[in-house]
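sorry for the late reply, my laptop died twice this morning and i had to redo everyting from scratch. anyway the thing you sent over, i finally got around to it. pasting the sequence first so we're on the same page, its 196 residues, then the predicted structure underneath. double check i copied it right bc i was rushing
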Amino acid sequence: MLATFYYLRMWKIPSLFSYSSSATTPALLSAPAQLVAQDVGQEKVSAEGAQAMAEDNLLVASPYTSRPHLLDLTTLNGSQILLAKALSLLTPVTDAYATFTYTESFNWDAVFTCLAAAVKSEAVQWKEQFFYIVVFRSQIPPTTDRSHLAELDKAAHIEAMKSGGLLKYWFGKPDDDGRNLATCKQVKPPSYLQTF
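ok and here's the structure:
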């Protein structure tokens, strides 16, 4: 039996970072290279993805690293670009993320330290703004054939990238009981949740 639940939360990032702004969005697209994670944890950047990143303003923002899965930074404003790049550092701090408290499951300190440094170095005026986090928790019996689920997830991710606003998508590996966690960060409420 498949058990899945999700919740949507608004994520308020206050105007902690108050620096005068003279940077333009094109300048932010070439923000420091250390903000871009080349190793996304679950798989290395594909050759196609690496070439696309070098040629365009694209960022690996999910476990999928081919071109249709990359985040086009030109579709974002300056603060969204910096947040997307900082989120490339997101990684779990516990192997029990599937059942652990969400806010304590990831290296949020590292993400926000990176974001604060980027805001300062790029002289961005960070105004209070809201983002959206979707948390998916699931339990699928360990004996289930999951091969088709990966293809469905990849197709859904491409659709999410086309609809815009997805800054980060992450999913883990199921634990011994088949429990898992997936999460995404977005600039607007995801349209696919409007049907629920």
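The longest strand covers residues 3-13.
thats about all i looked at so far, will dig more tmrw
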